[in-house]
Amino acid sequence: MAIASRVQEYMTEHGLRYDVLTHPHSHNSMETAHLARVPANCLAKSVVLEDDDGFLMAVLPSTQHVQLGWLSKAMNRSLRLATEDELAGLFADCEPGAVPPIGAAYGLRMVVDDSLVDQEEIYFEAGDHEKLIQMSRADFMTMMEMESARQMHFSEHYWRH
C-alpha cells in the first residue's frame, strides 16, 4: 500500500514538506520505530477518542499513552476509545492501526501532546504499516496549527515490565 489517498491530497494541497521512509511491516508503533530506525519519542501516534460530541484525534509520542482522565477533564468531555469498526469507517483508505495524525483530512478535531514540540524531527504513519512520513518540527507544528489542534499535556510515559 502507498500513502493513504487523503493524506497525500492533504499534504499536497497545503504545500507541506515531507519525506517518506520505507520500513519492514510492523504491528505497533514501538516496533515501527525500531524497524524504521527512528527514535520512538519522535514517532507520533494517533489515538482516536469519542463521546456524545463526536470524535477527537489525540496525537502523542509512541513512548507515551493517553491519560484519558486528564484529557477528558481538560477538554470537559467524557472521552472513550473509538471502536475498531468506527476506525475502519473513518479511515477507509488506511490499514487498521495505521492512523495518520492528520485529523482535518478525515474531518476530526485534534489535540497534540506538548511533548512532541521538543523533537527536531517528527515521524508518523502514512496510512499503512510500511511507510512513515518524516517532517521537521516546524513543518509538523505548522500542520497542527492549520488544523487548529489544541496543544496540551495529556500523556504519560509508557512503561513495560
Q: What does this protein look like?
A:
The chain is an alpha/beta fold and 161 residues long. It has a single domain, classed as YbaK/aminoacyl-tRNA synthetase-associated domain (YbaK protein). Helices cover 26% and strands 30% of the residues. The protein has 5 helices and 10 strands; from the N terminus they run αβαβββαβαβββαββ. The strands form 2 sheets. Strands 1, 2, 3, 5, 6, 7, 8 and 9 form an 8-stranded mixed sheet that branches. Strands 4-10 form a two-stranded antiparallel ribbon. It is globular, with a radius of gyration of 14 Å. Pfam families: tRNA_edit (PF04073). This is Aminoacyl-tRNA deacylase.
List keywords for this structure.
single chain; 161 residues; alpha/beta; YbaK protein; eight-stranded mixed sheet; 5 helices; 10 strands; globular; Aminoacyl-tRNA deacylase
Strand content: 25-35%
Record field, number of beta strands: 10
State the CATH architecture. Answer: Alpha-Beta Complex
Number of structural units classed as domains: 1
Q: How many helical stretches? A: 5
Structural class of the helix and strand makeup?
alpha/beta
From N to C, what is the helix and strand string?
HEHEEEHEHEEEHEE
**Largest beta sheet, briefly?**
8 strands, mixed
Can you identify the CATH superfamily?
Answer: YbaK/aminoacyl-tRNA synthetase-associated domain
Q: Terminal Cα separation, in Å?
A: 34 Å
What sort of overall outline do the alpha carbons produce when their principal axes are compared?
globular
- Quaternary state of this entry equals single chain
Helix content: 25-40%
**Rg result:** 14 Å
Top-tier CATH class = Alpha Beta
Low-confidence stretches: none
Average pLDDT figure: 93
